[in-house]
Automatic annotation (TrEMBL):
The keyword Cell membrane does not apply. GO terms for biological process: amino acid transport. The lineage of its organism: Bacteria, Pseudomonadati, Pseudomonadota, Betaproteobacteria, Nitrosomonadales. SUPFAM superfamilies: Periplasmic binding protein-like I. It comes from the Bacteria. Belongs to the leucine-binding protein family. InterPro entries: Leu-bd (IPR028081), Leu_Ile_Val-bd (IPR000709), Peripla_BP_I (IPR028082). Residues 34-371 form the Leucine-binding protein domain. The keyword Signal applies. This is Branched-chain amino acid ABC transporter substrate-binding protein. Keywords: Amino-acid transport, Signal, Transport.
Length: 383
């Protein structure tokens, strides 16, 4: 190695050491990094961008209003990462966000990505609020850094299973899940509730969150003549499943969870979506306390809301509200404020139980009528 090369190395090392622990500056203001993780590529990218845009809208509003912590002007900066709805990628993304020095994380979108990532955030003391991970296992871990602003699958699955039997009159039910933490977890809860309500589960099948051909599974299920098929999974699989049910001449109703209750499902399934049913945690957008105002400003900037963006927006506000109450962006200081949250958001009043779940969540049932999701009923659910 030449002396010239050694000199460059010494300069680089000195710069690196000097930079360690320094807070980035922007026009003299302290910059606080907030992470956001969701699928930004692949078949669920429309949902991931929806989350990202909801979080960004809140962050932009907070910056525009001005934020001061510890007597210093603070500028928030969003560090958004693509976890591809994949558990392994999610851990890589979580490690990257921690290494970049984020003060908190909004995400992840999918339960299967959120759960493994949550341990990394917990190990590093980084608060995490998911707008959309509904699997019970996420907050059951006991991590003090893990929160969510959406009703969990125990609540949603209970409503779905009970509704299928008591309101839709389904005596024989077939259940399919995508084997993700979300899809399988929700399907398990639906099965328990349906049986408790007097329904018979005549088939329990599974696929993957990448499959689009369900003809073999559906042909097997058709022979058992179910009144209703429940699918635990997301819209890229739900839409072709609905189309293939129609191709096979199945008369069974289709019922999904929040992963299926999107405008994209109707776009993908076309006319075959007519009559499909699905639930979503929370109130319908137009019934949310700040729903109509949020819709107007979000859609003016980003276009149609897919699903979870109001929750991502609220998650960002809840995170920053905790920082304001602690007068600090230091995770070790403001984390203590998160359990004391009592925030009136777009989606409703946000308070957390001891596990980090939102208290008193609602679940709403929808059906596709005339090419649009129409509200059927909202069921209030306690924790």
């Amino acid at each position: 190695m030449t002396g010239h090369t050694l000199g460059w190395v010494a300069v680089a090392v000195a710069a690196l050491v000097a930079g360690c622990g320094d807070k980035p500056q922007q026009n003299g203001d302290q910059v606080v990094l907030i992470g956001q993780a969701s699928p930004l590529t692949g078949p669920q990218a429309h949902l991931g961008k929806d989350n990202e845009n909801g979080a960004r809208l809140a962050l932009d509003e907070i910056n525009a209003a001005g934020l001061t912590l510890g007597g210093k002007k603070v500028v928030l900066e969003l560090k958004s990462e693509d976890d591809a709805a994949d558990p392994k990628t999610a851990t890589t993304v979580a490690t990257k966000l921690v290494d970049e020095g984020v003060a908190g994380v909004i995400g992840h979108l999918n339960s299967g990505a959120t759960i493994p990532a949550s341990k990394i955030y917990s190990d590093n003391g980084i608060p995490q609020i998911s707008p959309s991970a509904t699997a019970v296992a996420y907050t059951a871990s006991g991590f003090k850094t893990a929160y969510r602003v959406m009703t969990n699958d125990a609540q949603q699955g209970t409503v779905l299973g009970t509704y299928a039997v008591t309101q839709l009159g389904a005596k024989k039910i077939a259940i399919i899940d995508d084997r993700t933490a979300y899809g399988q977890g929700l399907a398990d809860e639906v099965e328990k509730a349906a049986k408790a309500a007097g329904g018979e589960v005549v088939a329990r099948e599974y696929t993957s969150d990448r499959s689009t051909d369900f003809m073999a599974i559906l042909t097997s299920i058709k022979g058992k003549a179910p009144d209703l098929v429940f699918f635990g999974g997301m819209d890229p699989q739900a839409a072709p499943m609905i189309r293939q049910m129609k191709q096979l001449g199945m008369q069974a109703k289709f019922l999904g969870g929040d992963g299926a209750q999107t405008p994209k499902l109707i776009e993908l399934a076309g006319a075959d979506a007519e009559g499909a049913l699905a639930s979503n945690p929370g109130l319908p957008l137009d019934a949310m306390p700040g729903g109509n105002a949020f819709k107007a400003k979000f859609e003016a900037k980003y276009g149609k809301i897919q699903n979870y963006s109001p929750y991502a927006y609220d998650a960002m506000h809840v995170l920053i509200d905790a920082m304001k109450r602690a007068d600090s962006s230091d995770p070790a200081k403001y984390l203590a404020e998160l359990p004391r949250t009592d925030y009136q958001g777009v989606t409703g009043r946000i308070r957390f139980d001891v596990k980090g779940d939102i208290t008193g969540g609602a679940v709403t049932l929808y059906q596709v009528k005339d090419g649009k999701w129409q509200t059927l009923e909202t069921v209030q659910s306690g924790n």
